[in-house]
Design brief:
single chain; mainly alpha; MetI-like fold; two-stranded antiparallel sheet
Amino acid sequence: MVRLIVQRFLSSAVTLALLTVFVFFAVELLPGDTCTAYLGRDAKGDRLENCRENMGLNRPAVERFADWASGAVVGDFGVSPYRNKPVSEIVGWRMRNTIVLALAASAFGIPLAIFLGILAGIRRDRPVDMALSSTSILAMTVPEFVSATLLILVFSISLGWTSGVVTAPADAPIGVLLGSTVLPTVALALVFAAHILRMVRSSVIDVMESEYVAMARLKGLPFRWILLHHVLPNSLLPAINVIGLTVAWLLGGVVVIESVFNYPGLGRLAVDAVADRDLPLTQCIVLILATCYIGTNLVTDLASLLLNPRLRTFRG
């Protein structure tokens, strides 16, 4: 078991390192650099060369990556050449805002998806199940930017219930920020809740058809007792991985949602950083999001091993 945990940690660390290298050189291959984005039409001649000299962009890419990586190991992500501020200072508030949005979407979407998945499973092939299954498939297939745009069109423009875009600054208090995250929260929760609903529904159906549930029914046990003591514990365990992957996706999938709603989080900042060719800032954001994603997957995988003795025995 210990060996398996160590292997998981090492695999996660290698994946994170390879992803960091890939993102650095992928941004390097994009046309232009920080100076061309910063100077715009004036990016030519001595002015462009002086800018690159001042920002250190005329150094070899490998050397610049080595300097950034050595600093990142000790928590120093450098200075944003485009914004002329420490990267850690720029991402601080944005990271908090993304976590707030992800937690709000999780608190709203995960319990609702589990409840609806259980309801669809125990009402299999009935109108409730057909309606929930059709809705979940629709939510899974519609792109995030489409569902987000429809939410703005209906609830902001047509009904006027709430603002269509977030106008709060990045350093706004959490209370103020939460007041403007209703639509982003719903848009973010729609897609991942649909995946969880489908998984829970399938698990409930499998457990309902199991032999021990059939035996419990033959013994005359109340359906509520069977549901609470047999169906729920055994059907929610397979959904742990899906929930974990979904939570991990939240921190990476916020890019589209934050861009549509102008939400001041890491996703929106990542789009701006790539557009500005701000490599230190881009690398830091990717490192944060990748660490959250890989870390969540690792925790979910280990939780599945610990909670499922059969899986632990098989893998160990």
